[in-house]
Design brief:
Layout lengths: L13 H20 L11 H10 L6 H19 L3 H25 L9 H30 L4 H27 L2 H8 L2 H24 L9 H10 L2 H20 L12 H49 L3 E5 L5 E4 L3 H4 L4 H4 L13 H13 L5 E5 L11 E9 L5 E10 L1 H15 L9 H15 L6 E7 L2 H8 L1 H15 L8 E6 L2 E6 L4 H14 L4 E2 L6 E2 L3 E7 L6 H16 L6 E3 L2
Parallel strand pairs: 11-12
Antiparallel strand pairs: 1-2, 1-5, 3-4, 4-5, 6-8, 6-11, 7-8, 9-10
């Protein structure tokens, strides 16, 4: 529900006008319903204060409260219980409105007290269950001191009168201040306006007949049109009906006319009976109307959401699927034909797993199940489609749960997009990262990963070997001929080694002129023979430039057979020590690890 824009009393004339309205309303209530010399049996003035507080920023509360407090003091002093009770009753009246406003503001984050069920219930409980119970004690104490009416009777008079005024008038005043009346008039079709006017007129005529002309007590008769108005017109019509019922029935009861006259009681007691009847009418119509209004808003939001979803799904390059809890596709967007090579109509009714390559189905099903459990998060999974359009060999699916009104998952919405180009870029970047840019040998990281995998294989009985190689006197090549010549030597060195290795073997550059060769399925004897063949392959001089300069290349090597009981670092250290011995043995030779 959107947050309501709060109105305020910005004009300097607003507080005095509010005070005058409060004074006039309070005076009318005192003059019309102060039957027993105590408190008034009807009190609607505080509804104006509550509506003002509930629809304005807290910074403007003091001015409104002060102005209405002055109006309360004047009405009580001149027409009510006298000057002695004026100030205490003003504090009590303002306290009632303030308690309701504070509770509603604390509980309702959007500051709405009408229009949906929960806010209306909060308002009713704040008014009837807290504010009027507490302030009624203070009012009864004051009234019992300055009037002949006892404490209990005074509390009942205050409670029924203020509850009646608050329930009857506050909702409609709040709607007016929040602009709902203008919005309803602007947005409602003419036919609906005519229908609302006819229903309210018939309700008013029915109420007039019941209270002024009916020969039998028929207080139940307005209930049917009241409920009908709540259904057809909404919470605004229900609030207007309650005001009509209060005005017509209240005036008739105050005048000694109507079905309540059959009660053998005082005018005050009859008024309390009418208040009870009016409260029941309010509780019958307003919560129903508020709940219906909330459902209308929800339905409109769902319609808007559905329209946005359809527009995006039908014009998006991504494939949009709605999938049931059981994994069966309920809707597929038109882009399915282009992205995953299948017409949307053929997808509906199929399991989403049927679109996925068998090796990726478990991951897709697991993601679907996670989405049904973790409702607040979007879940991603990459997969290869079973039948893909040309060039679409990888897809990404983003899945999020769709929940019902009880917060339970009733399926998911999934967006599938083509990831083929992204995967191709990833592979290209991975290849760049896996290779030494100068020589084309494996990078240090890639070679060590292969070495780790081969150490694991060694635990199954496979015999492989690790060969460390260092180019002899490479520093002198750089110093004599320059780094460009050194780069040519490194590149030519690897090019000559590679044909002497099998496809399963790997050569990696560890740094500078240091290389390592992983000889798969080769024990120490076979690896030694491979090393000698490699020495012969690199023996021919390497051209340093186009001018005909050549340099002879030799290398020293250290060899170790892989042992699964040794760590990677221990094996590399053993090969390095063997290489060190080869260098100190005259170079251009192979030494085995001890």
């Amino acid at each position: 529900m959107p947050r309501v824009a709060l109105r305020h009393f910005a004009s300097p004339y607003a507080p005095p006008i509010a005070g005058c309205i409060y004074f006039a309303t309070a005076t009318a209530s005192v003059l019309a319903s102060r039957f027993e010399g105590g408190l008034a049996f009807i009190w609607v003035a505080n509804a104006f204060v509550m509506a003002g507080l509930l629809t304005s920023p807290t910074a403007h509360w003091p001015r409104l409260i002060a102005a209405c407090a002055v109006g309360s003091i004047a009405a009580t002093a001149f027409f009510g219980m006298g000057p002695a009770a004026a100030l205490p009753m003003a504090i009590i009246n303002m306290g009632e409105a303030l308690i309701v406003a504070v509770i509603c503001r604390r509980v309702l984050s959007d500051h709405v007290v009408t229009g949906s069920f929960k806010p209306l219930v909060v308002f009713i409980l704040a008014l009837c269950g807290v504010a009027d119970v507490v302030t009624g004690l203070g009012a009864a104490l004051v009234a019992s001191q300055v009037t002949p009416v006892g404490f209990g009777a005074s509390w009942l008079q205050f409670y029924t009168g203020h509850v009646l005024g608050g329930l009857t008038c506050t909702p409609i005043l709040v709607m007016v201040r929040q602009g709902e009346c203008r919005r309803w008039w602007r947005e409602t079709p003419r036919a609906a306006k005519v229908e609302a006017a006819i229903l309210l007129l018939l309700f008013a005529l029915t109420t007039v007949h019941i209270f002024y002309f009916a020969r039998y007590p028929m207080l139940f008769a307005p209930m049917l049109p009241l409920v009908l108005i709540a259904f057809r017109v909404g919470h605004l019509g229900a609030a207007a009906s309650i005001v009509i019922l209060a005005l017509i029935g209240g005036v008739a009861t105050l005048s000694g006319i109507g079905p309540l006259m059959i009660i053998p009681a005082s005018p005050g007691e009859r008024m309390q009976a009418f208040q009870f009847y009016l409260a029941l009418s309010f509780l019958l119509s307003m919560p129903v109307a508020a709940e219906l209004n909330g459902r209308r808003r929800l339905f409109k939001m769902l319609q808007d959401s559905e329209s946005r979803f359809r527009a995006m799904a039908e014009h998006s390059g991504d494939v949009i699927l709605t999938i049931g809890v059981d994994g069966v596709i309920e809707y597929a967007s038109p882009s399915a034909a282009e992205q995953i090579g299948c017409a949307p109509g053929l997808l509906v009714g199929q399991s989403v797993a049927n679109l996925v390559d068998p090796q990726d189905r478990d991951a897709v099903i697991a993601t679907h199940r996670r989405a049904l459990v973790d409702l607040a998060e979007a879940h991603k999974v990459e997969f290869q489609p079973l039948a893909a359009a040309a060039g679409h060999d990888w897809c990404e699916m983003v899945t999020r749960a769709v929940v019902d009104e009880c917060g339970r998952a009733r399926g998911v919405v999934s967006a599938i997009r083509d990831m083929s180009r992204h995967k191709a870029r990833q592979r290209a970047l991975q290849q760049v990262a896996d290779r030494d840019s100068l020589t084309g040998a494996d990078s240090r990281r890639t070679f060590l990963e292969k070495l780790d995998a081969e150490i694991v294989r060694a635990s199954t009985g496979v015999r492989s070997s690790l060969l460390f190689i260092d180019i002899d006197h490479f520093k002198s090549v750089n110093d004599t001929y320059g780094h460009g010549a050194g780069d040519r030597v490194l590149s030519a060195f690897v090019d000559r080694l590679r044909p002497g290795l099998r496809a399963a073997d790997s050569i990696g550059r560890l740094g500078g002129e240091e290389f390592a060769i992983l000889l798969v399925d080769s024990d120490i004897d076979r690896a030694s023979m491979v090393c000698e063949r490699l020495r012969q392959r690199v023996a021919a001089p390497v051209a340093l430039d186009d001018a005909g300069q050549f340099v002879a290349v030799t290398f020293s090597a250290g060899l170790v057979e892989l042992d699964s009981l040794m760590s990677r670092s221990a094996l590399m250290e053993a090969a390095d020590k063997a290489l060190y011995r080869a260098k100190h043995s005259g170079r251009n030779c192979l030494r085995l690890a001890a």
